[in-house]
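DM from R.C. (forwarded with permission)

"hey, sorry to bug you on a friday — could you get me a structure for this? deadline for the figure draft is monday and I only need the backbone to look sensible"
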Amino acid sequence: MVTTRQPLLSDIVASLRRRWSVVVAMMIVGLVLGVLCSFAVPSRYEATSTVSVNPMSLDPAGSSADVERSVSMPTEAGVATSPQVAAAAAKSLDSDHDLSAEDVRDATEVGSPDDSFLLEIRFTGHSAKEAAAGAEAVAEAYLATRRADAAADVERVVASAEEKIGAVQASADLPENGGSLRQRALAVQADALGARLAQVGIMDLDPGQVVGSAEIPDSPSTPGPGLLGLAGLLLGLLASIPVVLLKKDDNSDIGSVDGLHALGDQIVLDGTRDTNRADTWDIAAFMLKIPTDIGSEDSFLVMVDAEDEPGRAITAGQELVDALSRRGRSARFVDAGAINEGKISRGWPTDRKRESWASEIVVIDTTHLTSDANKVALGTRSDSVLLARSTTDDASALRRFAGLLKSNGVDIALTALFPARSEMLTLNR
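My reply, with the result:
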């Protein structure tokens, strides 16, 4: 089954290095755009006022109630951001700053630290003075609104109590309530209502106080040219990665021996001028320097890799086997593409398998192997590695594969370069 190879980190780094000019250009563009954005985006300033909220309750039993139950800080935060408070704050700011109630609401954020009776009122303005004035105005408007609401509640309770006292007094004058027991009951009700009026009269209506005045900020809260420029630089680098990976090389073919040498430090056999491909393989078999005496208990493994050529009857590994045969050396041909790739990843060929190849030259052909990782694994288990490529093969793929071999400590013994494939020559006519 053919699998699609995903680019490795090393591939990405190598591509970025090869096209460093594209990367640098996009980073510079990102830097310039980031700096320009810093001037296009208006500066914003942020100031904070801190308000301490006092518990207030009209419940006569409130003095003995749990204070934490008498104040809901989320509710108070909602009051501080209410349209009523925003309208009052906008009115107080009207003389110096042109802000509507909706502007004030949009610019206000209120939070409360856990387990505290503090409200932190943050105001964002177009200038440092506007931010500080806005935070102070919202804090004062919140306290004034809370004080007015408490006073209105007191007036409501007083009016209700006085109305009930009047009703009790009117009932006391009725003939049917002239009895002593009834008069005593009405007197008790009147006393209770009077006590409630007395308690409401001495109630503390202080809603709280500003314990942290808003200071005029020294610098804007929005990012400046330096930070936006750096962000643009990084975004330019990130944007260059897909551009570099998707951009095709102007000439992705190996082309010539010079192009093959440019891919890395390796011994190259130039077979582009040989009229007979077998002549090149005869020289390759000689240059591999396979030991004459392998030993009765040892084997010599040669890994041969070439680009897969659909329709080609014979692979590079078989061509090497034939060349060794012409030199009087017998070799066993093994097609790695026919071996289960999971088996290779688990350590094939095993020591037991190598023992079965004792005294033999074994040519392992990885042309039909789909996984570069498994090719590299076989390279680490081989005694010699030979690469066979043609001038029209993919230079980027070879560069990547050679880099993987090198990073795993595998030296390429020889790279043989052949003329363009016949089908490519036909297309170029």
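R.C.: lifesaver. DSSP finds 17 helices and ten strands in the chain.
me: no worries. Residues 9-41+223-246 form one domain.
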